[in-house]
Structures are given as structure tokens and as C-alpha cells.
Prior knowledge:
The structure holds two protein chains of two kinds. Chain A contains five helices and no strands. By secondary structure, chain A is mainly α. The model of chain A has no long low-confidence stretch (mean pLDDT about 80). In chain B, a hairpin with a 5-residue loop joins strand 3 (about 65-70) and strand 4 (about 80-85). Chain B is globular, with a radius of gyration of 20 Å. The mean pLDDT of chain B is about 90. The interface of A and B includes residues 44 and 118 of A.
Amino acid sequence: MAGGRLFYRQAVVDNIFYFIYFTFMQAALFQRDKILLLAIWSFFSFSAIKFFSIFLYSISHFFLWYTCLYSLLFFLYYFVFKIRFAIGLNYLQYTVSNILFSVLVILFSYAYYKVIMLDNDYFDLNFFIIGIISNLLLGSFLFLFTLIKKK
Amino acid sequence: MRFIIILILPSLILLAAAILFDINYINYKPPIPYSEWPKINFYDFRALKKPGVTLSGVKEFAYIKTNRIIYYLNNGDVEIITYFHPSRSYVFAQDIRSADLLKHELYHFHISEYYSRLLRKEVFNQRNRLTKSEMEDLRRKYYLLENKEQDEYDENSYHSYVMKEQRKWEIKIDSMLQSLEEFSKPVVHMVNRE
């Protein structure tokens, strides 16, 4: 029993070190100009989707179109990053950026809701959480295209 | 820096265009409190319609946007006002002379006011033991109840097309408002000053 508990504690410690290792490995992502580019690209994507949602509002499968557009816009970020810094993102960096992108978009959407919309308007956080998951899945799928091109 | 400006400029333009469909700031009119409801006409419905939006395929429709704001006054009293938002409310043609459609939309405003009165009543009844956060909880509770009633009203009267149901609802809403006449004034006195 005691051995099992020790093993469990060791696994937790290992995971923490693993997380720290990867965080530092992604240090290249957390430089000021790169964070700024990601924040501005997120704002651009948020504005673009907000604009396109005027037209998407009345069509069926709204959520699907919405998520596809976000994933596509994030996929474009891969190329924007490449043009701006002359280096490509690996899969892990791409995924970390995708999560940050989704979080920033949620923050912009919430700010929009607070500033522009009324208190009895609808802000569905679940919609955005499902959006993050879909964005990660679709984003990963789109990342495959960059690998194909490399091959 | 140039790269950032290239991205920020179109972002702001797109966002400005998107905001226009949520609140028409080009043809803006400030919110109208419930006390001024008899003055409202279709020229006050100034919002823009999102392209392709219809009411079950019908392009000739209107919608009204209302809300309520709670003001915490310096003397400890609370003011609860129901507002109509002209720049967020839409009608397919402002020069339309459909009294029935306007009446239908205004009764949505009356329903909002009824729930404001209910909120005032509850705030007044609990005035000695109500914190700000509890007040916010009550506000949310009454929004939920109001939304349910607004949907039911639209569903039954089919957005004013079913006249018989529309008349029934008008009588019902009028009597609901009448039953809470003593809470028709926006200010709720929280402290007994006798």
C-alpha cells in the first residue's frame, strides 16, 4: 500500500517536472514580440469572425461554420508566424499557441459582451469551451497539411 | 510595427462594422425609460437587421429590445428602471402604419415592466436583509422568468398574427401591471424615514 502511494507521488512529481520542462522548451513562444503577434492575430480573428457572423447568423449549422472559420484563421497564423519570424512552429508550439489563441478570443468575446451587449443578452461559456476543443482537433488536422508540404 | 498596424486597422474596421448590427451607433437614440412608453413609435426602432434573418421565412417583422437597470442611490434607496433600446430594436419599415404590430412590440415592453415591478416588490419586502450580490441574483432570476413569459407571449400570439390570442395577452398583461400598481414608481425606499 505504502509502495503504491510512493509510486503515485513520484508520478505526480514527474508530471510536474515534465510540465515545467515543456513550458521552458516553449520559451521561444513567450517572447514579447511573439506574444504580441499572437494577441493581435487573435484580435484580428475575433473581429473577422464577429463580422462574418453577421452573415452566418441566419444559416444552419452556425456553430460548425464558426469553428471552421476560427480553425482556419488559426491555421493561417502558422504562416503569419513563419513570415514574421522566419521560423515555423512545431506541433507542440502550434498547439500551445492554439490554446492561447482560443483563450484570448474568449477574453475578447467576453469584453465585447460586457461593453456592447446588454445584461440580458446571452453569453454562453460552454459554446466557447466546446469551440476550444473543436478548434484543437480541427487545428491539429490542419497542421498535418504543413507536414505533407515538408515531406 | 508596420506589421502590427496592418493587422490592427482592418480588425478595427471589421469590428466597427460588426458592432453596427448589434447597436446602430450611426442612427443612435438613447434608451427610453418605461415612463415614456406612450411616445414610442416605429421611428424609434432603429436597429439594422442581420442579412438573411427572417421570422419563419417572413421578412416583414419587428423586434424590441428591453432591459432593466438597478441604480444604487446615495441615500441607500434603489431605483429599478425598465428601458427600451431604440438602436437595438428593429422594424422592417419605419413608415409602416401597423398599429397592431406596434402594440404587440409595446406589450413586450409592458411584460418587462411587470417583471421590474415584481423585482421592486421583492426588493422592498426583503429591504432590511438584502445584499448587493443577492440583488443581482434576484435580477438574474427575474430575467429568466421574463424571458420565459416573453417567449410564451410570442408563441401564443404568433408575433401578433393570431389576433384573438393577442387580445387575450393584452388583457392579461394589463391586469398583471395593474396588480402591481403600487410598485410602478422606479424608486424602492430601502430605509424607513418616518
